[in-house]
Design a protein that fits this description.
The complex is a heterodimer of chains A (132) and B (139). Chain A has one domain (3-72, 85-122): Immunoglobulin-like (Sandwich), CATH 2.60.40.790. Chain A is 0% helix and 36% strand. Chain A has strands spanning 9-10, 32-36, 40-46, 55-59, 63-68, 79-82, 90-95, 106-110, 113-119. In chain A, the strands form 2 sheets. In chain A, strands 1-7-5-4 form a 4-stranded antiparallel sheet, with no helix packed on it. Chain A has a 4-stranded antiparallel sheet with strand order 2-3-9-8, with no helix packed on it. Chain B has 139 residues and is an alpha+beta fold. Chain B is 14% helix and 36% strand. The model of chain B is unreliable at 1-18 and 33-42 (pLDDT under 50). Classes of the chains: A mainly beta (132), B alpha+beta (139).
């Protein structure tokens, strides 16, 4: 993980909301990584079992919230022998302190992996200063 | 890392090799469940679920973002081995799990599909392992 973590920090410690706002459903935090480039951040979130329709990305003032709901239900007649995964939806909340421009964010979702390109807010982009 | 998976569940079927295996696996599982929620990057373990119905045993593995060409599913005797290569930018991670399965799998007819980052392996049961309905005439 790059030093972007200093800008995009996680709310997990104390301030995290452990439940979906819609109800008392417990959620789990997905694996994710943030990479910083000159002009933006690349966020990769691993959401196995989540179809496109189950994905919800909300960019609030200084917070990015990603919710992924799994679609698979155990078919009738199937007996569970061993279980390691969970049905709980994924939820990731990242605080970004207005560091990127949400209007220009781009998302790609394939094979259970969400890739977000978050362009840096103008104020954060490195600027070359000409010497006259 | 090869990892005898379903020790606890298959123990009654005779797969338990040492009296401690179950406990060791339980300890591993406790560590895994504690640590996995902090996973910032994929570790070399992936969650696996096992189901069955009358005709098949089903193994579902969470392998998000893996190219189908980089998933290798193999049956060696009564063990199912899943190996996957995850490539992200310049980095490459390899994951592997081996599951002991009941002996009644029709190894030649095993199939698999991959959707939404989930691999499902379908292992048909041999005819003799399927529950049979026998009508008994009552005189």
């Amino acid at each position: 993980m790059s030093n972007a973590s200093s800008i995009v920090s996680n709310r997990r410690d104390g301030s995290a909301r452990p439940e979906l706002e819609t109800g008392a459903t417990p959620t789990i935090r997905p694996a994710y990584r943030v990479k910083e480039k000159d002009d933006g951040f690349g966020l990769t979130v691993y959401l196995p079992g989540v179809p496109k329709a189950g994905l919800e990305i909300t960019a609030e003032a200084d917070q990015l919230r990603i919710i992924g709901r799994r679609s698979w239900k155990q078919p009738e007649g199937w007996t569970q022998i061993h279980r390691e995964s969970t049905d709980a939806p994924f939820e990731l909340v990242l605080e970004h302190g207005d560091s990127f421009d949400a209007d220009k964010a781009e998302a790609e979702f394939r094979d259970g992996v969400l890739r977000l390109a978050l362009p840096k807010a103008e104020a954060l982009k490195p600027k070359k200063i000409k010497i006259s | 890392m090869n990892y005898p998976l379903i020790t606890r569940n298959l123990a009654p079927l005779g797969f338990l090799r040492s009296p401690w295996t179950g406990l060791e696996n339980e300890i591993d599982r406790l560590f895994e469940s504690t640590l996995s929620s902090f996973a910032g990057a994929p570790r070399n373990q992936f969650p696996v679920d096992v189901y069955e119905d009358r005709d098949n045993t089903y193994v579902r593995a969470e392998l998000p973002g893996v190219s189908r060409d980089d998933i290798n599913v193999e049956m060696v005797e009564d063990a199912l081995s899943i190996t996957a290569q995850h490539k992200e930018d310049e980095e490459s991670f390899s994951f592997s799990r081996t599951l002991a399965l009941p002996a009644h799998v029709h190894a030649d007819k095993v199939s698999a599909n991959y959707e939404n980052g989930l691999l499902t392996v379908i292992l048909p049961k041999r005819e003799e392992a399927k529950p049979r309905k026998i009508s008994v005439a009552i005189k």
